[in-house]
Amino acid sequence: MRTGRHVEYHLHAHLVFLTKYRRGALTGPMLVRCEQIMREVCADFEVELREFNGEDDHVHLLVHYPPKVALSKLVNSLKGVSARMLRKEFGTHVRDHQSGGRFWSGSYFAGSAGGAPLTVVKQYIEQQNRPV
């Protein structure tokens, strides 16, 4: 449970981002860097990134966010900043897997994690395989 000046909240969301056309663009080192970037973006929004993992074509995040944060704005920032930074740091590899200049698919999944025990969601994310 977190508190703000006038609110107590316990809001969690499970987010999934896909690479464009589900191309296997993410390597192990890219996933590590992607997590660092997304933690920084979350901190800017006063959001806690509780869990992160992924595979070569998608990533999973479990975020604990305050009610003042619009998930759509958080998602846009996470995807935009991570794509820009990954393109800058892993340029050739990213460009080889891009389509039309986009790294992430325009769509995403956002699910409320309030109905399932958080341990189940965390366990699911932890079991995602990182490519080597």
Short description:
Pfam families: Y1_Tnp. GO terms for molecular function: DNA binding; transposase activity. With 132 residues, the chain is of the alpha+beta class.
What would you note in describing this structure?
With 132 residues, the protein is α+β, with helices and mostly antiparallel strands. It has one domain: Transposase IS200-like (Alpha-Beta Plaits). Helix content is 39%, strand content 27%. The chain has 4 helices and 6 strands, in the order E-E-E-H-E-E-H-H-E-H. It has helices spanning 28-44, 71-89, 91-97, 118-126, and strands spanning 2-3, 8-9, 12-19, 48-55, 58-64, 104-112. The protein has a 4-stranded antiparallel β-sheet with strand order 4-5-3-6, with helices on both faces. Helix 1 crosses helix 2. The termini are far apart.
What is the count of DSSP helices, taking H or I runs of 4+ residues? 4
Q: Could you give the count of β-strands?
A: 6
Q: Judging by the overall fold, what is the CATH architecture?
A: 2-Layer Sandwich
Look at the structure and give the mean pLDDT: 88
Q: What percent of residues are in strands?
A: 25-35%
Structural class: alpha+beta
| Overall helicity | 25-40%
Shape: globular
CATH C-level label: Alpha Beta
The main pleated sheet reads as: 4 strands, antiparallel
Q: How is the CATH topology named?
A: Alpha-Beta Plaits
Q: Which spans of ≥5 residues are poorly predicted at pLDDT below 50?
A: none
Superfamily at the CATH H level? Transposase IS200-like
Major beta sheet, strand line-up = 4-5-3-6
Radius of gyration: 15 Å
H/E series:
EEEHEEHHEH
Distance between the termini: 36 Å
Q: Number of domains in the coordinates?
A: 1
